[in-house]
Amino acid sequence: MIEVKNLYKSFEGNEVLKNVSATFENGKTNLIIGRSGSGKTVLLKSILGLFEIDKGEIWYNDRNLTQMGEKEVKRMRREIGMVFQGGALFDSISVEGNVRFPLDMFTRMSSKEKKERVEFCLEHVNIEKHAFSLFPSEISGGMQKRVAIARAIALNPKYLFCDEPNSGLDPETATVIDKLIQSLTKEFQMTTIINTHDMNSVIEIGESVLFISKGEKGWEGTKHEILKTDNKKVNDFIFANKLYAQMKGK
Ligand SMILES: Nc1ncnc2c1ncn2[C@@H]1O[C@H](COP(=O)(O)OP(=O)(O)OP(=O)(O)O)[C@@H](O)[C@H]1O
Hints:
The protein is of the alpha/beta class and 250 residues long. The chain is built from 10 helices and 10 strands. The chain has helices spanning 40-47, 70-77, 95-106, 111-124, 141-152, 171-187, 199-205, 223-226, 232-239, 242-247, and strands at residues 2-11, 14-24, 28-33, 55-60, 63-64, 80-83, 159-163, 191-195, 208-213, 216-221. The two termini are 36 Å apart. The site of adenosine-5'-triphosphate has 11 residues, from helix 1. Keywords: ATP-binding, Nucleotide-binding, Transport.
């Protein structure tokens, strides 16, 4: 579980996050949604410890990130898997090389152990063996995202952070990726936080949804509650997508 308490973050006097509190439970897909510029990425990076916050607390289970020393933060980051926007695979390394990369960097596993772990992760994201030796440019966008997810879970993380994991994908493939993240979250009981503006993702996997509006917590609830809420800011966000406006009968 990750807990954020009364978090404030500003850049040169520009207050970007104001008094944000939220709980992200493990075994659940926790979504952070909001308009462009609302502060989602700053919140994610603050939780990751990439930004120093002005005020507040960030708890990883019983560990307070804001009280940790540099070494402890580094150690804890190894418990975090990241899926970056666009996948961010290494172009010059094969599919299996990309997944092996964190194992080479952070473990003392034998070659055989690494091979087995790479296979395990790639099989879990439904990449077939014949694709293991291909390069990122030789596989589809959806496959690239799956490889990026396999790489993110290689070190068996407790926490999984995904920044717009299905951007640039067609809606069907995007749903496959969303569902894959959800099933891995359940199987490995990770605390998963996903930044997205995609209402399809909200409806598919929004077990817990945090809506950020101009740096403040605007609303929180589930995918079922979001279609029933009277919160004006949430509705304005949803109604920007005509399909969901229809679903809400507006
Ligand atoms: N390193 C930084 N220095 C100064 N200001 C920043 C920095 N990072 C973000 N901001 C500001 O913080 C605000 C929120 O940005 P943020 O990237 O969190 O938005 P977002 O909700 O993730 O948007 P998008 O959905 O478009 O990615 C913006 O006004 C942005 O200019």
